[in-house]
Amino acid sequence: MSCRSENLWLELIAGSRKTSNFLWALILFLGSFAFLLVGTSSYLGRNWISLFPSQQILFFPQGVVMSFYGIAGLFISSYLWCTISWNVGSGYDRFDRKEGIVCIFRWGFPGRNRRIFLRFLMKDIQSIRIEAREGFYARRILYMEIRGQGAIPLTRTAENWTPREIEQKAAELAYFLRVPMEVF
How does it sit in the membrane? Predict the structure, then answer.
């Protein structure tokens, strides 16, 4: 989502609170909990899940392995839920022609560097660059070349932009910033 005026462009960046992340975290939690439950029921000799009689699953080695996978899955699931609750990767890109400043803000993981805030002068922007890689795993990323800083990605690598969409966004941004556009 973006908001534009004559001198200001504000681009809101979605973080990890996406439907797919919620679904994967839920599926992983339920599956790993079921694995842990089957492993525990094979150890105790009780039938906690009606689909798998505990007498058919021996604790060693099947129950141990299922318990291990259940615990590992719960750790990964908790990591995903924390990432979703912290909304890692969300933020905004703000381009202000009136003040001549570009601000890039992202939320990170908790700690000393939770808030990632970059500020540049517009006169230091050399170009807007599109990096396109075609093939089996095609990816198109939009970069902003900053003098003395290198390239800063403006789009996420997981976003699947069509060539037309990424080119249009790059052209609009380059026109707004009054810088050249490069394609690699």
Answer: Multi-pass membrane protein
